[in-house]
Write a structure and sequence with these properties.
The structure holds 2 protein chains of 2 kinds. Chain A has 8 helices and 7 strands. By secondary structure, chain A is of the alpha/beta class. Chain A is globular and about 50 Å long. In chain B, the strands form 5 sheets. In chain B, strands 4-3-2-5-6 form a 5-stranded parallel sheet, with helices on both faces. Chain B folds into 3 domains: about 130 residues, Aconitase, domain 3, CATH 3.30.499.10; about 110 residues, Aconitase, Domain 2; about 150 residues, Aconitase, domain 3. Chain B is of the alpha/beta class. Chain B is about 30% helix and about 20% strand. In chain B, helix 11 packs across helix 13. Classes of the chains: A alpha/beta, B alpha/beta. The interface between A and B is large, with 44 and 51 residues.
Chain lengths: ~160, ~425
Amino acid sequence: MTIWKYGDDINTDMLFPGKYTYSCSTAEEIEPHLLEDLDPSFAKKVQKGDIIIAGKNFGCGSSREQPVVGLKAVGIQAVIAKSFARIFYRSAINQGLLLIESSNAVNAYKKGDSVKVQPEKGLIIINDKTFTFPTLPEEIIKIQAAGGLLPYTRKKLENRL
Amino acid sequence: MGLTFVEKILAQYAGEKSTIPGQIVTVKPDHLLTHDNTAAIIQKIDNELKNYGIYSSELPIIVLDHVIPAASEKTAINHKKIRDFVNTFKIKHFYDVGVGVCHQVVIEKGLALPGKLLLGSDSHTCSYGAVGAFSSGIDRTEAAALLLTGETWLKVPQSIKINIEQTTPKGVYAKDVILHIIGDITASGATYCSVEYHGAVDQFSIDDRFTITNMGVEMGAKNSVFFVDDITKTYLKSINITSSSYHPIQADADASYDQELNYDVSNVVPLVACPHTVDNVKPAEILSDIDIQQCLIGTCTNGRLSDLELAATILKGKHVHSSVRLLIIPASTQIFKDALKKGIISTLVDAGGIILPPGCGPCLGAHQGVLSPGERCLSTANRNFKGRMGSKDAEIYLASPATVAASALSGKITDPRKVMN
């Protein structure tokens, strides 16, 4: 498992360049361009279960959802950052990508450290140190439990009939 | 204890007496904005659309603006899919290629009104606070769900009160004011928050307010808002909206804010956001060594009549530098027509300006003026992220229409006060 470490203000153009916004929308089309202008090695080497650690304001900028769809599709286990931009955060809830806001964990992490995430317990374990993060509000847990916003919406529509 | 704007409007839409920051409410927005991304949105819900249809044909506003006219077979197919969807579901508010940039169209057509709640799958949906609406960006998936159900959840944000003090000096515009604020509070300084503008705001026209609220997301804000005043009412009257058709909402005097910030705008100078973040703000006058190859005046941030008029005042009777391409994009056809009538377009063309169709142009790097490695663009847009306008090895600088026009003449970043009488 690889831990990918990046800095502050990682924006949506770095995660997925705007020039592809209207030519790529499926996971297969998105994957080769993920983090293209930030870290060209990412798309080639990323593996299921990898974790991204970053600074403040991760995902700022556009409302395009390709970064979230792409990170989910390649199997990113969690993005741990000091803070997230709000549209990106919301989008991650909709796609079922785990985002964890924890400045303490980000500050503690050093290259080579082992990182484990236990979302159900609200825990991040870096080497032998444990960091807690708050569990989400009930409404959001319902969306996550359904597997994302679209499955949740389908359920809602079926129940109305 | 009183309520802030956002606490009040979200309470109203949730059917509650009041709300507090952190509370999650379910709301039914008045409108849902989508643009060229409508094709990708409806593709997600093909089956559901067949089985359940859409929530309401009044809810969606669809504006084709991002890649117009179509730049490739793929974008042409997307546009066609969207037109088919519009016809099938009898979408009431559809604006095809050439009407304008979506946010300009929403305001111009009177679809964003004081006290209304709009969501849109575009990050600059936050613009409509210019006329006292609550508006915020969402992603495509959420737009798909809203098309089907007409409702979503919102978390009530903390509020930031920005007090504007004094008036801007000559050569300093709304764009400089918002760059000054973002430079100060940083690109994440208002993350998750609702930003309210108070104080000496009567110096700002609706065009100015639009520029300021448009860039709210560049400091992380959920929404930004100016409260309704005579300037708002006069503007709405000019687009045939009577005051009986809207109900303004404003914060209570004793509302509680997470932060209160004061900005004396008499000290602001012409500013430029330097690569590659919007909060990397510097005075234009110290950047005079930086040469530029492309200038862009337009976009949802600064493509309005007053912006084009200001640029024309500076460019009149002159010609842009031989190494500069000056691209001009009126934010809507209405603005284009008004600018034609006033002789603004001929002044800009005489000065060497290239007029592009009302839309997003090269702002997001899809077409119509993308940058080569090593090139620099000075733009009136809202975002200067690495790679946004084409090559990742190009640089984007952001400034007011006056600074861009003055710089187009010299081929280097220029403080507009140097060329203004």
